[in-house]
Amino acid sequence: MIANHHKNLATFIHLSTFSRFVIPFGNFIGPILLWAANKEKSDFVDQHGKQAINFQISILLYAIIIGTISVPFFIFKLFDGMSVFDFRGFNNFHINIGEPSPLLYIGGGLGVLAVIAFIIELALIVKASLTARDGKLYKYPLTINFLK
């Protein structure tokens, strides 16, 4: 049987990822501190800590990939009419909003995908917290296991 204290620790490990809204990189610092201080006390806390940290690292990796793919589409659209070798290109620089390009649609679609992924991430963190509170193990979907 899992003690209430260990259930609470596992729940707070998951909920500590929300500290990123207050502290930069709080989604890594909070779970790592709680997990490192309590991983020897319970295998239950250890498993939930690893899951929370692996999920946050995976989310960071996915965000970097989406950003790396989508940002060039906006940059290419922004500097569409400018020549690299013509230094006078800034004289005629303007953004024409009336003619959206397919590049802008692709970049915007990836941006919408990022927003949807953020909402799903928040829902998964809440679900993991509730599962930990109930004394069950939770595995985040699409998580790369960096810590085993």
UniProtKB/TrEMBL annotation:
Pfam families (UniProt xref): MamF_MmsF (PF09685)
Signal peptide: none
Transmembrane segments: 18-38, 59-79, 103-126
Membrane topology of the entry: Multi-pass membrane protein
Keyword Coiled coil: no
Alphabetical UniProt keywords: Membrane, Transmembrane, Transmembrane helix
Organism: Winogradskyella alexanderae
Entry protein name: DUF4870 domain-containing protein
Entry's localization field: Membrane
InterPro entries the record matches: MamF_MmsF (IPR019109)
